[in-house]
């Protein structure tokens, strides 16, 4: 009797000769490459000796792995990191695991996810912007197609004997390949996921999602997407464990939440009625105090000044306060509901006696809080592209206040709440120059390995999750996957910090770049440059019908921060240490060349690409082109 993949046992009627084509396919699927035949081939069966390569199986007792990544959640949103939004499940995981308080993403969704799944920098794996046609470009760092030589965690673990499942947002399939005709190489199933249920784009409606399962689009059933993906994740694990009890699995749980559209049942938002009536300024102060009590920020931390774009809450009209508060009630309800759905998954693992042997990583956000709701917030997707005045947008929101958060709207909260939920940092999503764009909470939960729950302050980055996971599992990164030689994984394992709060971070250098904004970190020092025009300035230019200045990267002003002493970037040291700025700018250039970052592409380039397939814009003003782009 011989065991094969999925614990199927077959005995041949003639000397163990296996003739079933199906099992031959299963056997080959379990191998990363064809194995040399080690038997004997004679003229007859009697003169021959069979050989069956051993199927790949992980060591007995290998832990399951669950990666949870939320979308558009700032550092100061979840109660697990001091925020005012109740997330009891995340709190429980954090209280019984580790809070990593110096963890970083790329500042926007697709680059973060490509870096997470491959363990290498986003431009290095060709996702410097997005995989969408408009937001990708025909250069190695920008074409939006994960190369085969940069295998994903799902490919690695699949070939180590794990089952691999993904649910929710994928976000790194090129638009032109995202049809039922494929090709499917860049779909999740082409990147190591044996099953996937979710959507391929960056955002989708929560009740009418652009839904796929495996390699086909399917019709959604009308329930909230978060409920559907949780059901599917549990179903995948249940079926697998019934067929092969104890076989380890990898689950990538990636809800659309809480990316716009903010849509959630009233029973989740109603408990927050009145909770935010004292405004975004008060929220920041309360959250800062909570964060100090939890120890997730330094005890002497000071809030940066309120951004000049955001109004003083006390000076707002009653109608403005009413509308803005409603937006935040919906967002908060949405995040609490997301926590509940995560709880259903965790509860299932606990009740099925699998949680103790499961490594759980929770990335609370793939970037900082989103500024994409504009100054007023939005109830309609056209708010983003119409070029309406602020007053017109506000009046529309006021008139439709009862619809905010419903299935009929495309809700996103205003900028003031983005700053509040990003406490204690400046700036937001897309701002790769700022900790506000890149600094997110991370929770690691694994009872078998983490002896004492606590806080970890080591610098880490999203590319470090994959090598850390492999270290925990005792799995070596493969030299090849399905006969494709692999690049070296760029991330650094922080496995040594699981039980050593004083372990030294191995990750010393990290560059950041999103649509012109950029930064370089080197062992506590950080040089950063904001870039103009950014997405808000593009929107403002459209609103006010003014031309944008030509994009000029050489005019960007570099700032300098000592992150070890000034974690939320309040003291610019560039004038004091110009030689340090020059040194770090040189390092950025080296990293950019090494990681396929060039050419630099910014927001204005992205908008202009909506009209021109070539860079030529001669004879037309930026305003003309941008206005045409948004029609």
TrEMBL record:
It holds the Pfam family Sulfatase. Residues 1-30 form the signal peptide. InterPro entries: Alkaline_phosphatase_core_sf, Sulfatase, Sulfatase_CS, Sulfatase_N. Residues 63-475 form the Sulfatase N-terminal domain. PROSITE patterns: SULFATASE_1 (PS00523). The keyword Plastid does not apply. GO terms for molecular function: hydrolase activity; metal ion binding. Keywords: Calcium, Hydrolase, Metal-binding, Signal. Belongs to the sulfatase family. This is Arylsulfatase. It comes from Flavobacterium panici.
